Amino acid sequence: MRETAETTGRTEATTRTTSAAAGEHIVRRVKHLIDVAEGREPADLLFKNAKIVDVYRQRVAPGRVIVAGGCVAGVLFDDRDADAPDPAAAEVVDCAGRYLAPGLIDGHLHIESSNVRPSEYAKMALARGTTCAIADSPEVANVAGLAGLEFMIEDARRAPLDVKFMMPSCVPALPDEQAGASITASDMRAFMAAHPGEIFGLGEMMNMPGVFSADGETLARIDAARLTASGRVDGHAPLVAGGDLNAYAAAGIVADHECTRPEEALDKLSRGMYAMLREGTCSHDLAQLAPIIRENPALARRCCFATDDRAPSDALTTGMIDNACRMAVEAGIDPVVALSMATLSPAELFGFDHGFADPLERRGAIAPGRRADLLLLDDLSFTAAPRRVYSAGALVAKDGRFAGMVAPADGRVGELERMLRGSVKLPRLSSEVFRYPFRPGELAIEVVPGQAITRRVRPEAPDGLRRIMLIERHGRSVAAQDAGADGDGPAGEGLAGRHIGRGWVRGFPIRGAIASTVGHDSHNVCVVGDDPDDMRTAVENVGQGGFVLVRDGRVAAKLDLPLAGLMSDRSAEEVAREHDAFVRAGRAAGIEPPLDPVMGMIFLPLPVIPEVRIRPEGMFDTVTYTYAS
Amino acid sequence: MRETAETTGRTEATTRTTSAAAGEHIVRRVKHLIDVAEGREPADLLFKNAKIVDVYRQRVAPGRVIVAGGCVAGVLFDDRDADAPDPAAAEVVDCAGRYLAPGLIDGHLHIESSNVRPSEYAKMALARGTTCAIADSPEVANVAGLAGLEFMIEDARRAPLDVKFMMPSCVPALPDEQAGASITASDMRAFMAAHPGEIFGLGEMMNMPGVFSADGETLARIDAARLTASGRVDGHAPLVAGGDLNAYAAAGIVADHECTRPEEALDKLSRGMYAMLREGTCSHDLAQLAPIIRENPALARRCCFATDDRAPSDALTTGMIDNACRMAVEAGIDPVVALSMATLSPAELFGFDHGFADPLERRGAIAPGRRADLLLLDDLSFTAAPRRVYSAGALVAKDGRFAGMVAPADGRVGELERMLRGSVKLPRLSSEVFRYPFRPGELAIEVVPGQAITRRVRPEAPDGLRRIMLIERHGRSVAAQDAGADGDGPAGEGLAGRHIGRGWVRGFPIRGAIASTVGHDSHNVCVVGDDPDDMRTAVENVGQGGFVLVRDGRVAAKLDLPLAGLMSDRSAEEVAREHDAFVRAGRAAGIEPPLDPVMGMIFLPLPVIPEVRIRPEGMFDTVTYTYAS
Questions:
Q1: How far is A150 from chain B (nearest CA, A)?
Q2: Is the ipTM of this complex over 0.90?
Q3: What phi, psi does B33 have (nearest 5°)?
Q4: Which of A308, A522, A570, B55 meets the CB 3.0–4.6 Å disulfide criterion with B340?
């Protein structure tokens, strides 16, 4: 397969149906749609008395929608097609004057950030009207490589949400990161050859210096997007402007979801990039950016929405892309324009509004030959979950609750899941490892509460500081220990400065200790605490992953994330409850808002954000790219 | 190659560069663009002091444009990037405050209708600012099959206009037409396999009954579009609405250029089809349709322009897509909105605004990583040809005159041209063949001057009638004659009713005779006259193609079209002069406006338009699909 894909330059979104026989399958689907549209065969579903949201003409028009074989076979508008008789249909839905809108598209998100597996994410997303999610999974890929990505794909397939998986472009985040895997352009090509049609595009290109410098491996990864279904390369370019932005756009990168100010979004639109207005859990950019659409609705054509990272409690209570629509409307954007940014615009961005051979792959509007992803809404305020959600013509959610089917996790997905359950490989650790001395004037992290950036400090005394450690957990530590790294010393001591980094942090006033297997982007085990014994207990209780809070020698709260150390195997509701309980326990242990006991942990190891981070080799200055001596 | 294309579902617009080595070529181009954008390498061209037309934001903004390797490497806007220094450039163009706009895209046209060969068409189009033409060539394909199409592709390649050729979808127009070729879905696939990347999409699907009935061969042709560069299927659906329109859109057909009234265009937009507002030589729909954009500029997103058929004299004097822009502005549409319909909208329609791997294949705006197709304009009224036209960064026209290079017509294109010069194969014709009797009450054509439709009449007397004959010219007549069809009778008499149709026409008051090898869609020889001897002389003087007017036994005017009997081998200016002289001679011979001596001839044989036509078998009622007895 590999040579084939190389030869023809690009496969297509219908690549699950690439063979000549599958071509016949598409022809049969098209024939059925035509036969239904012409009244020769009965429809599956007929929606009557609907107020159809027509995103092409940005209007609401009363009419009927005919669905067959998972797609829209026809639309009949009362003002033009009143004479057309009702087609025969297996089921008639009387919309009673309610709105019928296209399903919502999330332009960019990380399922792992919701701490649930893809099939569980799907239930949550569908309940809030998202019917298509463009997912990037660098988190699981940093832990488990392409097998992790394969798990995401296979698990997502169990549920009726259409998830389009991007190929993570930057694994690991830096070449020398001690991550669980690395993915080169060559690896990408091999995976796509082995899994034709499964990869939709190249995920957010975070290696901006690699693009600006026209680095060979970076360009090879961008070129690998030719082999993906959409051929699209997604972007990530916070604050990039001028010549750098020209370079970034010239590389063929189609979108950015990192704009925080109007002029930044406008700069990118002028370079031909789409702007994704992000409204997530950590980042709330929509209110800042909405004025550009309110003032010039023509820009909606090239703007869409993204959640990026969404905690399950937020997703369950305020929603996802529907929440973005609600905020857009509250910011003064016309509701139909807002809906077009959640449907037609991302469909055009990703090339599946029109032109694909398979009608099931066309979407973003209610029109013949498009996938029947439909929302029944009481109004266009987006203040409540949709009354009904249909995915490819099947009812999948009612009144904010998932109402579809999820297939069992057997076969290949079961194998992959078992593999992910063994992702945390910690070395033996004596208590001595946690009892390192404070050296006056040494480099330390100062947390900026509520932000991902940190500041450099060199304190002269340990007052107000906490210990912070990063313990490699992908196998290097264990192998080094098995090879005798500790010699005759305490277990783990020989790993210090090689696979166990140790240092100090200010502004994280925990009483006791928190350990976590979620730590961007390599997801080694990070532990912060005021007591070495509590720290050791926390690490020992991490098990196969999650967040652990220990006080006075006892586990006070735990958020179990046994899948790759990133995702729970339980329902979103249970995860939200565990998460909320963990936050309450963190608050009781001294972590005050805006610092968050969960979110406040996960960026401390990320070595691509200023100014100081903890790495397995020790404290790292991310501005000068040097380790503390 | 064929199996490869089948396997992967679709090739892409960059298919001339499909190999791994060509992938390296794309990467090199991207690297160069980035290096220029970052100032590490010099640009080819720097446009300074430009008013940049930014179709993404629908604004005009002062700034600079950097061009390298045929593409835009960067755009610097004075309000945001004033501090950026001028990059080094081999050539600096001081725009002196003039407008710099993207090159125009013609969404649908037939080069043959301009009666010039593609390389000559290119010169004319570029001079008027068209830098990309989506061409459908059913005319030459009806005469010479896929070899005719190959000639168009190879001849177009000689000139710097980027012509994207569609695969003609309906050759011949009816299954039993006596055309020069037929093209099945299987033929299409074989041609695309042998010419990877050369076919851009499937041309206008005129077989509407075939779509409505979900005919197998029709759907197989639509499915063949999966193997084209764009994957797009273009449409042709005059007056189609309701269930038929649903069926047509459900088939995956992306656009229509046949709308004549606002509600028709709006119906199609609501079904997810793009509307091409046509302004050609025979059809003038723009003034009727412009109000929908003036009243709701958001519709510009899904509307573009097309010339369809454009006589060279019109093209030379009033322009092509620039003429459509001018009329749009005169109709009250904002000039930048009009320009976006001539650039960004068709680019999005055909999937080459963004997402293709090769920057040379992206277009429709002035932005990094897009092809540098640029127009320098004094103003945005479109009343004059552009001051300068650049195609892929090369100057190709100045002040309405072509200023680029055309490669010699040698090699393969020369071979194909020689083949096309032998397309007219007429039988021996005695004068008796032309002297058939009038039978009172027989079915005859009544011309509707200025329209393609005709009316049925059954005159009782021959007053005001003219003889009309259609003579098969693709080889069947000659073969039948060689096989003894005439027996001992006059030459050609034995072909009557089989390969020579004879009848009468009212409303075409020619004195003398006109013969033509252009006659939609099969392009047999049509002759109309009041004198059998003049008719015979006209046919005898057709030679290898064109229009001939004979009066009193002498050739009074001739428009030579030796290439497939459709196209001249001379310049557009010469063709326009010959054409105008022919029209004057026709006027002198009794043809009054709005009847046109050229355009009035070419639709008389078209068997798919109401109500009566001439076919090689005789007079044909196109409403009842029966021959006159």
A1: 21
A2: yes
A3: -60, -45
A4: B55
